[in-house]
Write a structure and sequence with these properties.
By secondary structure, this protein is of the alpha/beta class. The chain has helices at residues 13-19, 25-36, 50-59, 131-147, 172-183, 205-212, 227-233, 242-256, 274-284, 309-321, 342-346, and strands at 65-72, 78-84, 89-96, 101-104, 108-110, 125-128, 158-162, 195-199, 217-221, 260-266, 289-295, 326-328. The strands form 2 sheets. Strands 1-2-3-4-7-8-9-10-11-12 form a 10-stranded mixed β-sheet, covered by helices on one side. It has a two-stranded antiparallel sheet with strand order 5-6.
Amino acid sequence: MKPLLRDIVPGDWPRLMTELGAPAYRGRQLAQWLYGRGAMTWQSMHNLPGDLRESLAGVYDPAGLEKVERLIADDGTRKFLFKLRDGHTIEAVIIPMENHSTFCISSQVGCAMACRFCATARGGLVRSLSPGEIVEQVQRLAQDLVDDPFPQHGQRRYNVVFMGMGEPLDNFASVRTSLTLFTDDDGLNLSCRRIQISTSGPPHGLHHLAELDLPVGLTISLGGADDASRRQVMPVSGKAGVTDVLDAAAAHARRHGRRVTVAWVLIAGKTDQLEQAETLARVTRNQPFKVNLIPLNELDDDDLQATAGAQVLAFQRVLADAGVPAFIRVSGGRDIGAACGQLRRRRQQTPPS
Ligand code: SAH
């Protein structure tokens, strides 16, 4: 597969243009088409000379995603299935919030993390996405809001969360480049504050993120507050101890002056016992954290069940009594399989070889 135009950061285009024999300013023009105008075809970039477009087309593809499904849930959540050039599919979601939308995007096709409760984990990791494939999801969702705005929003502001398919810190190089594409003045010019990376904290992942030193939001998917119980539901986490992960998270929070979210999936009988709430409270209290409790989205092919309402409240109460801010989060779009890799799984076809 050729690289995508969006695999290249805007700052590299002037040099690449001169290598193709074109003046450097064409690089800015191209970036303007890609990020200012959201161009997805060669034809649309009409102030670039035809022969330049031809030389570029010999090296790059202008776009890498094709929308194959768009579903709208009762609560307004919009779920998209995109086909990549090699036939694999990924999901992305628009979640309407009060004053903005949240774009939930994927970083990989499948995932290597093997979390027991997650639909994406089922088929293992197929491949990581390129930076362009990550950024194009956001641009396709932004275009969807232009074409079909939410009536309650006067504006089209959005936040980006890496909570779709895949483990972003297991695809660090692409995610890092995508952050440049998101935040660069000549890219999408999005503030780091509007971007959230959600991670199970694979070994070295948080270390690499710390080296980047960017004030992006961070969510740690925990699922167990001590190593043994975490391993039961998130086996790959066995390599990354709870204490190490939370220490790295607290350092991130302090360095950037923003709280880190700890996400905790509530699975009946597995992660919802009050002793577990107490352990969780012990490791999160007096730290720059808040806890999001997420009742499991039950999978089609599994008998794990969501924690019932009264137990969710009891679990939350333990945290609140310990002074830990804890919120209950119900996933949007449950009726359309919008949660966590479920749509792709229902529609999965063998990709063409
Ligand atoms: N790999 C990253 C991002 C993808 S998962 C991570 O682990 O954070 C994003 C969030 O969805 C995680 O907090 C995860 O715990 C949650 N999640 C996954 N499957 C779920 C399910 N079936 N029900 C509820 N939440 C789920």
